Amino acid sequence: MPVDHHQLQARLMKTLNDRNYDEWESLVTEDYTEEYPQSGETIRGRKNVRAAMENYPGGLPQDGFDTTSTKRAAVEATWVKTPTFTFVRVEGTGNVGTVAFKARYPDGSTWWVVIMYELRGEKVAKATAFFAPLFEAPEWRKPYAESKTVRT
Amino acid sequence: MPTDHEAFIKRLLTSLNESKYDDYEKLLTDDYVEEYPQSGEVIRGPKNSRAIREQYPGGALQDRIETASSRVAATEARWLRTPTFTFVRVEGTGSAGAASLRTRYPDGSRWWIVLFYELRGDRLARGTFYFAPEFEAPEWRKPYRE
After folding, report:
1. Do residues B78 and A96 lie in contact, with contact meaning Cβ atoms separated by under 8 Å?
2. Mean pLDDT for each consecutive 10-residue tract of chain A (152 residues)?
3. CB–CB of A137 and B134 under 8 A?
């Protein structure tokens, strides 16, 4: 039976929001690998990834994620709203997928997190994560762009 | 015939790298929409999408993109190297896909761009762009990483 990407990502998000790392471990493979291309880091094994989350400076706050709803046009895209992450966009078939969500960090900054992931069976085996900060729309682009209320 | 996502993205990036905006426009639908969730901007139509590239402060330098090869381990993922973008990862089936690539801006900074896109026929109908800067790996994560 094909994996339900929406459901899996919603479960993953919930475990992270709840800081329920035992539950989180059950959703990834033992050799789960996480990559951060922006810094060149690779974290191998779910124990290391869990440790990195648990040891995040300042702690990953349980209420640190934006829960307000934002409006966003998305043609033929599927959006999943989770209790603490604002929006999750999930697209996936077979064993690969992508997800994007907005998260707030302990210092109060808000970032978009975009993840390309690969499944093995019903578990996540690999994730390549990108961290994209909010920014002000530049003046020079105003003649060509509309403004939406995505930012917080 | 299903769209060859790799070939399509390669054509798109080549047109941008070479500043061939006439070619670029032909790859977009007339009602193409480009979104930047980080700033809340929405750019509608091929003409506006073209204009923001042509009007980019400092100019769209043809040699701005890093060509040196970089290594990114990717199990069972498909990576495509283009002449000017370092790496492009393309995943897509049907009408939707995702691509990531690394580029350099006129100020010398290096960024990853992640693009979620939707095709209609053999043209790009929507692109959602995320811009992620490179950063130094933090000390505290050293015990857990390579």
Report:
1. no
2. 72 85 94 88 93 84 45 35 45 68 77 82 84 88 76 44
3. no
On whether residue A145 sits in a domain, the answer given is no
Residue A140 lies in a domain: no
Domains: count for chain A: 1
CATH of domain B5-144: 3.10.450.50
pLDDT digits (tens, 9 = 90+) for B28-71: 999 999 988 888 888 999 999 999 888 888 766 564 444 332 22
Range of the domain at A39: 5-135
Q: Of the candidates A40, A76, A118, which has its C-beta nearest B137's C-beta? A: A40
A63 by Cβ neighbours in 10 Å (0-12 / 13-18 / 19+) ranks as exposed
- Beta pairing class for A123-133 and A28-36: parallel
Question: Which residues in B lie closer than 8 A to residue A133 (C-beta atoms)?
Answer: 38, 133
Domain boundaries of chain B, sorted by first residue: 5-144
d(CA B72, CA B92): 19
Q: How many CA atoms lie within 13 A of A98 on its CB side?
A: 24
Q: Which of B9, B43, B52, B91 has the most A C-beta neighbours within 10 Å, making it the best mutation to test the interface with A?
A: B91
| Among B52, B133, B137, beta carbon nearest to A41 | B137
CATH of the domain at A15: 3.10.450.50
Residues A52, A57: Cα–Cα separation, whole Å: 10
Q: What is the ipTM of this complex?
A: 0.72
Q: CB of B60 within 8 Å of any CB in chain A?
A: no
State the Cα–Cα distance between residues A38 and A21, nearest whole angstrom.
25
**Chain B interface disruption, residue of A28, A38, A126, most B CBs within 10 A:** A38
